[in-house]
Structure formats: structure tokens, C-alpha cells
Amino acid sequence: MTALTDIKLASLAVRRSVLSVPAANPRALEKVPGLDCDAVILDLEDSVALEKKAEARDNLRRLFEDSPLRNRETIIRINPLKSEFGRADMDLVLDVSPDVVLIPKVEHVSEIQAVADIFSEAGAPDTLAIWAMIETPKGILNAPMIARADERLKCFVVGLNDLRKETGVLPQPGRAYLVPWLMQVVLAGRAHGVDVIDSVFNDFKDADAFEAECAQGRAMGFSGKMLIHPAQIEPANRHFGPDLQAIENAEAVIAAFARPEAQSLNVINLGGRMVERLHLVEAEKLVAAARIIADRKKTS
Ligand code: COA
Ligand code: MG
Question: Most exposed among 44, 72, 127, 171, judged by the fewest C-beta atoms under 10 Å?
């Protein structure tokens, strides 16, 4: 029988809203503690101009020293290791110890392993995780191999701005021509226990289109969405988080399987609906996620 503890609650992460904040923008950095996002990407890469890279690193060093972000996953997006900024970005990561380093434009297993090797050599804690941006044609084609690259790899983030630039696919409502590629990334991640986060949506003033894309991303199996603007946090939390109805359904499934007569059953009738034991695992995860979200609200 599956118990709540069996689904490794410690490793259950809630990543509905993953806000990117340019590390070169002190005003935006200041706002972060007051925002209700699950995770924050402090970006040293493409949102930071070349001449601001060093200043951006200094901003992050100060942020971690003076007012470390509590109660949410903290991610530093570095420049590629092979770029002139990569090594200095990694030194910052080792000094300030965020939860995660996010590697951009990953195309090969070796790029994950190179970062993991630097962590091992520096004696970084096992909890320091690696995430990978999958945002190029090669990245998508190699996603199944990249997903197995290293134990520290926990999450893929899809990047459609780069992918559109590389492929010529136009931004269109519904993302028809991109969906097959996105699903490949979802599949590769899920096959190897790597979480998957949907791409940013650029038109932050277009609330309706954003809602539609969140709903689509949720239906496609993404855990959450990378965001560029605070106005996108609430809709992302709503679409990717469990709603009241879902929580009630999950609690009903858990209660039904907890009855003595259900102990030796793998399939039961719950109000005219077939429920299998595999649904119990989903229900337990959902209730646990709801609890994490409620606790985060209480303590933030
Ligand atoms: N994180 C934190 N705060 C943000 C923010 C972000 N990503 N984006 C905007 N804000 C803040 C602004 O600083 C502003 O604060 P203020 O009212 O105190 O001045 C407020 O939210 C409203 O912002 P708004 O005026 O609507 O937008 P803007 O013109 O300041 O910024 C962007 C628009 C797109 C430049 C900005 O949202 C941004 O830089 N986003 C992230 C881009 C990024 O990370 N790209 C890389 C990944 S694709
Ligand atoms: Mg990119």
C-alpha cells in the first residue's frame, strides 16, 4: 500500500510561478520579497547587458548577504560556462549558495556534468541543484539524454524566445507548431524524474492570452511557468496550483482508500467513478502540495 511518506514528500516541490528578475535591476530585486511566487530566477544571462555583468553579480552578492530570500526556491541563472562570464558566475554561486544554478541553452550532457564536477570539486552540498534551460533545437533533440546527465539535475525550463529565434517558428496563439517539441521535453523530463517548467510569455499586458497559455501549459503537464512580470504571478499560481474542488476530490479519494474494507482493493467505486490505487498517489501529492502552499502563505 502506498503511504504519504512513500512519495518522498521531502522532494515534492511546488513550482507554479517561477519569476525571472534581471540581476542588473536593483528596483526589481527589491520587490521580490513582497511577491507571492514559488521560485525566483535571479538572471545574470540574457536580461543583463554585457557591460552590466559584473555589477549584476555584485547586486546578487549583496542580496544574499543582506536579505536572503526566504520561503521560496532561489535560482541563479548563469551565463554559459564557455562564455567569458561563466566562471565568475559559478564562483558567485559557490560563494552565496542559492538553491539552484540554472544553465542556459543546454544542448549536451557534458554541460551539466561540467557544472556538477565544479560543484563536487568545491565540496558543494548535495542539495545544490542544477536546472537546465532547454531552448535550442539540439537541446530538445538531446533532452532524453540530458535528463539523465546527473543526480543534481532537478528541472527543465523551456525557453521559447530562443527556440523561435533558432527555428523561425512564429509566435501564435495556441503554439500549434511548438506543442510537439514542448511535449518531447515534458516526456523526457518525466521519464527521468526531472520537473518541467513552461516558457515565459512576453506580452505581459495581455492578461487573457496569458491565462490561455497557462491553462494550456497545465494541460500539457508542465508544473509551472517561468514568468517575466509580477502581474503574471497570480494567474500562474491559480492555473498550476490545486483548486478547492481538486483538493476536496483528492481528500475524498484518500478517505475512501483509508476505509478498512478498501485495504485489499486496488480499485473502488467512488460515487459512480472508478478510482484506482494510482489515483491515491496523485491525490496524496495534490494534498501535500496544497499543504506546502498554505504553509508558505502563513509564514511569508
Ligand atoms: N521582477 C520584479 N519586479 C518587476 C519585474 C520582475 N521581473 N518586472 C517588473 N517589475 C516591477 C517594476 O520594477 C515596476 O516596479 P515599480 O512600479 O516600483 O517601478 C513594477 O513591477 C511594474 O513594472 P512595469 O512598469 O509594468 O514594467 P517595466 O517596464 O518596469 O518592466 C520588463 C518590464 C519586461 C522590462 C520587466 O518586467 C523585466 O525586466 N522582466 C524580466 C525580464 C527577464 O528576466 N528576462 C529574461 C528571461 S526571458
Ligand atoms: Mg534564453
Answer: 127
The pLDDT score that the predictor gives to residue 300 is 65
Pick the residue whose CA is nearest to atom 15 on ligand 1.
Answer: 28
What's the per-residue H, E or C state across the chain?
A: CCCHHHHCHHHCCCCCEEEEEECCCHHHHHHHHHCCCCEEEEECCCCCCHHHHHHHHHHHHHHHHHCCCCCCEEEEECCCCCCCCHHHHHHHHHHHCCCEEEECCCCCHHHHHHHHHHHHHCCCCCCCEEEEEECCHHHHHCHHHHCCCCCCEEEEEECHHHHHHHHCCCCCCCCCCCHHHHHHHHHHHHHCCCEEEECCCCCCCCHHHHHHHHHHHHHCCCCEEEECCHHHHHHHHHHHCCCHHHHHHHHHHHHHHHCHHHCCCCEEEECCEEEEHHHHHHHHHHHHHHHHHHHHHHHC
Which domain covers residue 286, as residue numbers?
Answer: 244-299
Does 220 lie in the same domain as 128?
A: yes
Predicted pLDDT at 27: 97
Looking at the structure, tell me whether residues 256 and 215 fall in a common domain: no
Q: What is the pLDDT of residues 71-120, one digit of tens each?
A: 899 999 999 999 999 999 999 999 999 999 999 999 999 999 999 999 99
- Spell out, as residue ranges, where the chain has pLDDT lower than 50: 1-9
Ligand 1 binding pocket includes 159 (Cβ within 6 Å)? no
Which of 218, 239, 260 corresponds to the end of one domain?
239
Q: Does a structural domain hold residue 180?
A: yes
Interval between CA 25 and ligand 1 midpoint (Å): 9
How many domains does the chain divide into? Answer: 2
Query: Does 111 lie in the same domain as 30?
Result: yes
Q: Whose CA is nearest to atom 11 of ligand 1?
A: 28
Cα 162 to ligand 2 centre (Å): 5
> The domain spanning residue 210 has which CATH number?
3.20.20.60
223 shares a domain with 253: no
Which ligand neighbours the alpha carbon of 135 most closely?
2
Q: Whose CA is nearest to atom 8 of ligand 1?
A: 229
Query: Global pTM?
Result: 0.95
